[in-house]
Design brief:
iron-sulfur, EC 2.7.13.3, iron
């Protein structure tokens, strides 16, 4: 019996590195390249997510604007005309029926005021017609009257802001003041808006009962999550400083367009 000859290694394997003994530096470079590619894809997805989020939010604001005008110019004007026509009937009616007519006129007036208030809450015309600062002054004045608390407003010198940024700042201020009116039991509220160091900073501080921000972050009833998400779409952030019995200071920070990342 002829003894078996040892099997020669494959010709193409001659001179290559044995399996499991690859160059560690080359492997590390490959991992680093894969990580860089993955990071680039994540950043691209994040930019696309923000772009889509801004588009959705813009559509929502357009719809709010349309409904507000429909309420004000359509239903509001019809109610105004109805109120005047009812009032014209008063002189021709006997006293007993005139009292019922006046009750109907009062109901019409209340409905008209509710319609106008709903229109303003959906999208105040002053924001589109006159801009952010007059809209914030209207917001502070109307909330002072409605909620029985003193809302002071301080606005520094601001650069030109586009419509989206003005709407975003107004909505954050509106939500923050509504939260104070509903939950804080505050007497004094200070709203301050300044542009400093390439950042737009909105602060809403109150002297109310305060709360634990950590617990509130898990609640979806205060609107904080909505504010935080809206700000994030524009590379902004939301900071909350509060404690039970010590009031609350909400701070929204946004990069100004000149230094913001590319949209």
């Amino acid at each position: 019996m002829t003894p078996s000859r040892p099997i020669d290694p494959p010709a193409d394997a001659a001179g290559s590195e044995p399996a499991g003994e690859a160059d560690p530096l080359r492997s590390l470079a490959q991992v680093r390249d894969q990580y860089r590619q993955l990071l680039l894809r994540l950043e691209a997805n994040e930019r696309e997510f923000r772009r889509l989020g801004r588009s959705v939010w813009r559509v929502q604001e357009d719809e709010r604007r349309r409904l507000a005008r429909e309420l004000h110019d359509g239903i509001g004007q019809n109610l105004t005309a109805l109120k005047h026509r009812l009032a014209q009937l008063g002189d021709a009616l006997p006293p007993a029926q005139r009292e019922r007519l006046e009750a109907a006129i009062a109901l019409c007036a209340d409905t008209l005021e509710d319609t106008r208030e709903l229109s303003r809450l959906l999208r105040p015309p002053i924001l589109d017609d006159l801009g952010l600062e007059p809209a914030l002054r209207w917001l502070a004045r109307s909330q002072s009257e409605a909620a029985g608390m003193q809302v002071a407003l301080e606005i520094g010198e601001l650069p030109a802001l586009d419509g989206d940024l003005q709407t975003l700042v107004f909505r954050v201020a509106q939500e923050a003041i509504n939260n104070v009116a509903k939950h804080a039991g505050a007497q004094q509220v200070l709203v301050r808006l300044v542009a400093r160091g390439g950042l737009l900073q909105l602060q809403v501080a109150d002297d109310g009962r305060g709360y634990d921000p950590q617990r509130a972050s898990y609640s979806d009833g205060s609107g904080l999550a909505g504010m935080r998400e809206r700000l994030r779409l524009y590379d902004g952030r939301l900071e909350i400083h509060s404690a039970p019995g010590e009031g609350t200071r909400l701070r929204a920070v946004l990069p100004l367009p000149a230094v913001a990342e590319g949209a």
